[in-house]
Amino acid sequence: MSSPTPARVSPDISPPPGGRWAAVLALAGATFSVVTTEMLPVGLLTPLGDGLGVSAGTAGLALTLPGLVAAVAAPLLPVAVRRADRRRVLVGLSLLLAAADLLSALAPGVAALLVARALVGVCIGGVWAVAAGLAVRLVPAASVGRATAVVFSGIAVASVLGVPAGTVLGATAGWRWAFAGLAVLAVAVAAALALALPPLPAERTVGTGELRRVAALPGVRRGLAVVGLLVTGHFAAYTYVRSVLERVPGLGAGAAGTLLLGYGVAGVVGTFAAGPAAARGPRRTVCVVAAGVTAVVALLVPAGGSLGASALLLVLWGFVYGGVAVSAQTWLTAAAPRAPEAVSALIAAVFNTAIALGAFTGGRTADTAGATGVLWLGVGLALLSVLAALPRPAARRARRTRRPESAGGPGRTAGGWGT
Question: Which residues fall in a compositionally biased region of kind Gly residues (predicted)?
Answer without folding.
Answer: 408-419
